[in-house]
Target: tRNA (guanine-N(7)-)-methyltransferase
Amino acid sequence: MENPAFNRAIRSFVLRQGHLSPAQQRAIDEGMPKWGIEYQAAPLDLQQAFGRAAPKILEIGFGMGGATAEIAAGNPDKDYLGIEVHSPGVGNLFKLIDEQNLSNLRLIRHDAVEVLDNMLPDGSLDGVHIFFPDPWHKKRHNKRRLIQAPLVEKLVRKLKPGGYIHAATDWEDYAIQIMEVFSANAELANSADGYAPRPDYRPLTKFEARGIRLGHGVWDVIFTRK
Model:
């Protein structure tokens, strides 16, 4: 995901379509009418989109969607809206939705910033997940990182009072930046004393488990809206 310097329009990604397999394309073609939401510059009625009243959680950048499907399957009382521009990931998650018969997951294939600006009403979300965003680990590229003050300000407006924003990263300097950005927002309060323990709802990925075995760190930052 990319977030170019904020003197230009904020964007939440680098457009890297990758190779779309025939199975992924078929999953998109079949999945969009059932579980997809087309981008439009008009407010989205989330209760209508999911067909029920339930807590609504937004995930920005779900990658290939494995963790997202696992979270949705493990929390059937909550609804999850995933935003991703990477077409193979969108196709793969549609496939997982179909295989696991998940009714509480909807996908938008579009830039998250435009979705936030034009589709999601203020105070409509109970939570936001941003798991392992692109770290842009070279110092000169840090300005491209997704989690910076302008985006967090947008996200906070979409949260209900008491709603949460949860970011996780395996890059310590990015974790420090996330903590600083969240802490600087007057509408947010840390849910933990520093970094948070990994909540049960966030699954441990194979990559993450391998990293932990090798002594690598993973940092969860969870703040709530006042």
